[in-house]
Amino acid sequence: MDKNRKWKWLLFGVLLVCSIWMVTPPGDIKDDKGNIVKKGKINLGLDLQGGSSFLVQVDREDVQRKLKEKESNVSLEDEVERVREAAVEMIRRRVDVSGTAETEIYKEGNDRINVRLPGVAAEAHAATREMIEKDGVLVFKLVDINSDQYVAELMTERPAPDGFTMGAGYYLREKGAPKLTREEYEKLKDYGDFPADLMLEKVTLDDGTEIYRPIFIETRIMMTGADITSAQTGTDPMNGGFTVDLKFGKEGTKNFADLTREYAATESRAGRQLAIILDDVFYSAPVLKVPILNGEAVISGSFTADDVKQLANILRAGSMPGRVKVIEERTIDPTLGKASV
Description:
Layout (H helix, E strand, L loop, with lengths): L1 H22 L5 E2 L5 E3 L7 H4 L1 E8 L1 H11 L5 H23 L5 E5 L3 E7 L6 H9 L4 E5 L4 H11 L6 E3 L4 E3 L8 H7 L8 E8 L5 E8 L5 E2 L3 E8 L6 E7 L1 H14 L10 E5 L2 E4 L11 E5 L4 H13 L6 E9 L1 H7 L1
Antiparallel strand pairs: 1-2, 3-5, 3-17, 4-5, 6-11, 6-14, 7-8, 8-10, 9-10, 12-13, 13-16, 14-15
């Protein structure tokens, strides 16, 4: 009887140890020098770890407009679903490139996507939203040869666009005016009824003041960023500013060489300016002094370190198949989650 009781207690002890081991989070794994090589932790979800969540919706008006432009017979609902399927994967790629782990991205309803990002701090919420909503469409266009003339007429004959005040050859954003949206940039293209698109170059002065210089761009797209194989953050050797350094694949390298060869400076003409535009936002327009044959390009502008990091991530991940917009968002405080563990 005592022997049986002994074995029962022994079995109970073994089961107890195993149970404790199974529910106890693994500890940190260290090397011979005591450095942590693998962090031991419980993988907490959004409700426990805290973070950000976004409810994203496919822009039906944008989908419908593009169907009309293509004169497609595809139904609106079928095209919305195609865009949503592709957008789910694109958001996932952008989130993965940014380094966010343990994400939940899934479809909801007929045209929505739920994005749950554990661990994304409140201060990173706005940047994450921007990353999700950006089209990520990079295009190269020529600066109109009459741009200077059009700018002179614009500044002398037209009032400043809504939300801006007039400066000496530039515009200033009115105090309290919200950040420019892509819809506002689109509307600005037609301001003044010129035969070219009006765009604004944002420049940050030494005192921190942001000004917007008007420039007119040809409407035709000379090339897109569809064949980008690499997008890395860099530094401008001339002024120390932040840049995004691009590298094209085989086809893109050939197309970029043909484009720059056609419009580069020669003995008989000056080189044209090639505008670099992402999501209808003008970034720079370098003069084509010589053909660029190595398939490399640089995006420069008034960037912060965070700006170029986000741009590089978006360009590496690729462009959205159609527009999406955040219709609901929230930030979850991790305090409750920590207390629950």
